[in-house]
Structure formats: C-alpha cells, structure tokens
Amino acid sequence: MDFGLNLPSYGPGASPETVVRVAEGAERIGLGAVWTFERLLRPLEPVAYGGFAPPAPLPAAYAVVYDPLETLSFLAARTSRIRLGTSVLAAPLHPPVVLARRLATLDVLSGGRVVAGLGQGWMAHEFAVAGVPRERRGARFAEHVAAMRAVWGPDPVRFDGEFYTIPESQIGPKPVRPGGPPLLAGVVAPAAVERAARLGLGLNPVVMTWEQLEDTVSTFRRAAEKAGHDPASLPLVVRVNGSLTAKPRERRTPLTGSVDQVLEDLGRVRALGAAHVLWAMRTQPDEQLAVLEDLLDRAPS
C-alpha cells in the first residue's frame, strides 16, 4: 500500500507554480501518486450535492477548477516516476473516443503512469452543458467503458452499442499497457458499486465511516466474484476527504487527524486490501507534504 495527494488544482490558490511544486515535492518524498478531479462549472443556484443531499451552494473553490488531463499532462513533463491519477472524471460527459485518446496520449507521454478514476456523473447542470441526457447514466457509463476499451484494443476498432457507435477505424495512440491504464470507479450507491465490479473495474470509494467503507468493499468483492472476476486483482484505492494535522483531533473521520491517529487507522484499511490511500486535504500544500512525509517515514512498509 502506498499514499497519494489531491493536487491544489482548484480554488483561488491554484496556479501552474503551485501544482508543479506539489507534484515535484510529492515525488521527492516518495508518494505513489498525485490526483486531479473534474468539475465543469459551479452553478450559482443551490445544488443537491452528489445527487442525493438537500440543495445547497457548492463550495466556492469550484469556481476555478483546472482541467484534470491538461494538468496531469503538464506535470508529466515535470516528474518521472509518480503516478498521475484522476479521482474522478465524469466519463459520460465526454465522447468515449475523445476521452480514450486523451487518456492514451497522457499515458504515452508519461511513460505509462496514468490511473484513470471514472464516475458516472451526478450534477444535472453538467449533463446539460455537455449536451448529454442524464437519464440511464449508469447504463451509459457501462457502455462508455466498453467503448474506451475497444479504442485501446487492436486496430481496426469497431463498436456498436445503444449509446455509442464507432465505425471500423484505426485509432491511436494506444496506451503503454495492453488494454489500457488501470480503471477505477468512483461510485457510492450499491447498484453502481455492483456495476463497477461486473465491469472488472477497480474501486475508488470515499471513506466516510468504517462501516460504510467495509460494506462498500464487501458488496464490490461479492459482485466481482459473481461476475467471474478475481476480486484480489481489482485495485482498491481509498479516497479521504479530510486532512492530516499536526495536532490530534478528538472528533474525526477515518484516516484523518494527526499522523499518530492515522497510523492507528492504517492497519484497518490495509486489512481491507487497499492498494493506495489518497488524501484531498483542506490545509496549505506545504503542510500537506510535511505531514505526508512524516507518515511515510513512520508507516510500516
């Protein structure tokens, strides 16, 4: 198991200099990956966050969000070893040929360092501006993954589906690894978790409580095995929307708080079979690198 960090590629502090400093620092201290995410716009009206919470204003930081793949392409030229991940891209907002080619190009330019976290999308405003129906987005997501895998396969490529059609074509570049980069599903609802397992994707859940995380992983692995996949072969990448801090916290969610507190939590997430833990922190970038370096120095190998 290794660790990663969400890049400061959004909000008022986002800048080319900042994302480069954090990515280079993350590679220097030995993190496994840096991560970006996608947000097309910040509606000014209240939004049902995640598609299920009561309507509320979205975070002000979402007014400026750098495009995730352009950001990672920029960083591919400034780093050499660290993996470059998305957590997550809303796949149905993009034509599968376009997204598959962009991911493959980044993979080639970075020497095979891409990890593609994908979601099915939730915000009605983003579907509207992308010109994509929001209905049946789960089925659309499943077919989108199949179409991208076809693009990454041998030429000639052909795909005939309900939502997407690709005429017999040559489409390149191909990703570094046969079949494409590792794919993770950033999903929450049990039906979406089961769908990801049937598709043979890895899992990228946000941890809110231990019980929620353990139930999600259990649901995923049962569905994967039922679909004929080896659950142990599908990566589990746990996302933490919270910070490591210099001082302990009396009230905290899993994998947040001081380094000592997080060290106590690591055994539990390791027992779930997590391949990677990434933090999306709310503290200053230099503080994030400092606490993660401390965690790396003290975490069992």
Automatic annotation (TrEMBL):
It holds the Pfam family Bac_luciferase. Keywords: Flavoprotein, FMN, Monooxygenase, Oxidoreductase. InterPro entries: Lucif-like_OxRdtase_Rv2161c, Luciferase-like_dom, Luciferase-like_sf, SsuD_RutA_monooxygenase. SUPFAM superfamilies: Bacterial luciferase-like (SSF51679). It comes from the Bacteria. Residues 10-253 form the Luciferase-like domain. NCBIfam families: F420_Rv2161c. This is LLM class F420-dependent oxidoreductase.
